[in-house]
Structure to design on (207 residues):
C-alpha cells in the first residue's frame, strides 16, 4: 500500500497542486507531527484520502487551530486501514517546563500501557499487534540526538521488541544533509525518519 508520509517541515511542492502528482498512487497520508493544521488540511483536501497523524512536541505549529479538520488523531489509538494496522504515540521527550506533548519515559510507558489493550485486541482479531507505529520521537539510540529535547525513548525499544511492528515512522530529528541516515532496522522493524516527506510502500503482513 502506497503511503505519503510527512513530518516537521512544510515541503512547498506538497503545499501546491503538484501534491496530486507526487502522491497520485498514495492510499493514505501519515503525519509524524510538528506541522501546521492548515498544511495537513490542504493535503487531505487535495488528495481526498484519509490522513492519520500524531502531534509533535510543538503541537500544531503556527496554526490557530490545534486539531486539523478532516484528519484522524492516532495518539493511543489503533486503526485498521484496509488491513494495515496503525497505532500512534505523540510527542517528544520532556525537556522543559512547557510539557504539553512532552513526556518522561515513565509517562510514555503509561501511554503505551493504555495503548496495549487495543494492541492485544488486534492480536486476537488479526493475529498480530500492529503493522505501523506512527510516532513523533525516534527510539533511544536510533536517529536521536544527544540533547534532552532530541533524545529518543528507551520505552520505544521495548515496544519494538514486544509488539514487533513492521514499521516505526517518526520525525522530530531534522536532517540537513540528503545523505543523512533515515532508516534503521531493529529485529523485524524498519525505523524511518520521515522528516520532510517520504513515499513508502507499506505491506500488511499476517504473521
Ligand atoms: Zn519535534
Amino acid at each position: 500500500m502506497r503511503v505519503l508520509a510527512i513530518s516537521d517541515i512544510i515541503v512547498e511542492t506538497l503545499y501546491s497542486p503538484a501534491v496530486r502528482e507526487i502522491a497520485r498512487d498514495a492510499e493514505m497520508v501519515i503525519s509524524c507531527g510538528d506541522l501546521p493544521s492548515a498544511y495537513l488540511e490542504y493535503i487531505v483536501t487535495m488528495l481526498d484520502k484519509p490522513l492519520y497523524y500524531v502531534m509533535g512536541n510543538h503541537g500544531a505549529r503556527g496554526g490557530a487551530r490545534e486539531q486539523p479538520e478532516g484528519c484522524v488523531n492516532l495518539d493511543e489509538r489503533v486503526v485498521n486501514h484496509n488491513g494495515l494496522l496503525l497505532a500512534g504515540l505523540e510527542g517528544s521527550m520532556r525537556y522543559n517546563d512547557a510539557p504539553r506533548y512532552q513526556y518522561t519515559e515513565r509517562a510514555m510507558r503509561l501511554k503505551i500501557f493504555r495503548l496495549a489493550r487495543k494492541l492485544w485486541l488486534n492480536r486476537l482479531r488479526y493475529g498480530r499487534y500492529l503493522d505501523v507505529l506512527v510516532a513523533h520521537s525516534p527510539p533511544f539510540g536510533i536517529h536521536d540526538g544527544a540533547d534532552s529535547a532530541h533524545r529518543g525513548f528507551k520505552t520505544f525499544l521495548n515496544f519494538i521488541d514486544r509488539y514487533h511492528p513492521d514499521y516505526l515512522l517518526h520525525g522530530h530529528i531534522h536532517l540537513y544533509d540528503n545523505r543523512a541516515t533515515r532508516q534503521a532496522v531493529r529485529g523485524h522493524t524498519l525505523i524511518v525518519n520521515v522528516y520532510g516527506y517520504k513515499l513508502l510502500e507499506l505491506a500488511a503482513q499476517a504473521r
